């Protein structure tokens, strides 16, 4: 018989080194709850009666859309057993979502359990012995991912503006476990690009390897020395084309209706969020180099860049490409059965990365900063 654990809103578990889901190699860490188990759990924890439950895609967690007879729409998120060992970190992420929501940004919030907790630690046998999984019921945000709509200059502007607003709000957040966001060995932090050197062997024999090595060298020589002049903040860390939802607006365009997935939150720098935003929007645009201008204009409408930050933007965008491409390739070696899912960002990413690298900093920055200035002048 598996036990049931209920976690209060303050936790006292030791912090464990956290790796991105794509790097998680633990066998059977992903939950595999049946719909009947989900239904029972929702009734017991939240006193709600599901009228509709359907599975939602996720790599290492298990997500369900849930509409109860009592009304409303929710996402039941069952975290993998590895990340469930870090409840303090998950608590900070959950609080950050609520904090953004309270400050006017469209983030999910967690519905408390019947006993008033924002998450519950459930020990259940999903087919490979009793394991513990953190469970949250999050509000459902309407919309479609920004990857599925035309990326107009106006919508790109809005992504930059929203990302800057988000980080500016997060910087005001207070929480007793905020120090857990330091995450010094977190492989996806743009502060930790040098950690990639342990993984680039997966590119042996691929010409891409030399380009990645060159970018890491540029990062060490041109970004690291300027880092003391960057402004610190809390980064969402994964403001990408699959984590931003949009809905049609009244002007035949789209507005941002949701910000998802706070699992990569870390203490970083404002310029990191901007670089991540630009990089992922490039992967969805027919003319990738044109993306930087509108995103930059939107960002600077909230947070104008300092000179040191401007000088490092190009290399930081390349650096995020390196992280995405190398770690996707590495993850395929761990989970070859999920190769198609894991290589989503790589499909066009490699050619865009090469194009960006070959154009060089001077030419790319000219396009980005001139178009940003022109876009701002039209506002």
TrEMBL record:
Show where the Aminoglycoside phosphotransferase domain sits: 53-289
Which reactions are catalysed by this chain? Answer: (5R)-5-hydroxy-L-lysine + GTP = (5R)-5-phosphooxy-L-lysine + GDP + H(+)
**Keyword Transferase on this protein?**
yes
Keyword Ligase on entry: no
Location relative to the cell: Cytoplasm
- Where are the membrane-spanning stretches? none
Annotated GO CC locations: cytoplasm
Q: What class of enzyme is it?
A: transferase
Keyword list (alphabetical) reads: Cytoplasm, Kinase, Transferase
Q: Which domain of life is it from?
A: Eukaryota
What is a single molecular function from GO for this protein? hydroxylysine kinase activity
Pfam family name, one: APH
What InterPro entries does the record tag this protein with?
Aminoglycoside_PTrfase, Kinase-like_dom_sf, Pseudomonas-type_ThrB
Q: What is its main location?
A: cytoplasm
The catalytic activity of this protein is classed by the Enzyme Commission as: 2.7.1.81
Query: What role does this protein play?
Result: Catalyzes the GTP-dependent phosphorylation of 5-hydroxy-L-lysine.
In the record, the note on similarity to other proteins reads: Belongs to the aminoglycoside phosphotransferase family.
Query: What is this protein's record name?
Result: Hydroxylysine kinase
